[in-house]
Amino acid sequence: MTVHSPHDQSDRVAQTSLGELIGNISDDLSQLFRQEVELAKAELKQEAAKAGRAAGMLGAAGFAAYLAVVLLSFAAVFGLANIMDAGWAALIVAAAWAIAGAALFVTGRKRLKTVDPVPHRTVDTLKEDARWLKNPNG
Fold first, then answer.
1. Are residues 22 and 73 in the same domain?
2. 4: in domain
3. Which residues are listed as membrane-spanning (predicted)?
4. What would the DSSP string read from start to end of the chain?
5. Are both 17 and 79 inside the same structural domain?
């Protein structure tokens, strides 16, 4: 028959409580990590959408520039060969496409400059979490 002293029993309770505490901290850190990953995903998705819209505008600018080159070519041909009203009309249309292409390019370039690939909120919260882990009391 083994006799347990009250001191042995309090050690087991302390060990169980410490084990539970470590388990709880581990669970909390796992949940915090998952939340940080979700925040990073949301930020990256938002920035990718901005980049996609800007790239679309730059693509439209390229298409407009292509049309401008084609129409300016036709205008030059008609204008130089015949110096007719049809050639000048083609020149006006081509110039309008060139202006539209320039406007789309400038707008797309400005929007592309606002894209930031760094998930700032996630970085800030990770820094805060690191500070808390180093000094949980304040």
1. yes
2. no
3. 54-80, 86-106
4. -----HHHHHHHHHHHHHHHHHHHHHHHHHHHHHHHHHHHHHHHHHHHHHHHHHHHHHHHHHHHHHHHHHHHHHHHHHHHHH--HHHHHHHHHHHHHHHHHHHHHHHHHHHHHT---S-HHHHHHHHHHHHHHH-TT-
5. yes
Average pLDDT value for residue range 58-74: 85
From 47, 65, 83, the end of a domain falls on 83
The domain boundary, picked from 55, 83, 111, lies at 83
Q: Is residue 1 part of a domain?
A: no
Residue 117 has pLDDT above 80, yes or no: no
Write the pLDDT tens digit of every residue in 40-53: 888 888 888 888 88
Query: Token pair for residue 90?
Result: 């083609």
The answer to whether position 3 is within a domain reads no
Q: Are 53 and 109 in contact (CB under 8 A)?
A: no
The tens digit of pLDDT for each residue in 1-37 reads: 555 555 555 555 555 677 777 777 878 888 888 888 8
Per-residue burial over 75-101, b if 16 or more Cβ lie within 10 Å, else e, is beebbeeeeeeebeebbebbeebbebb
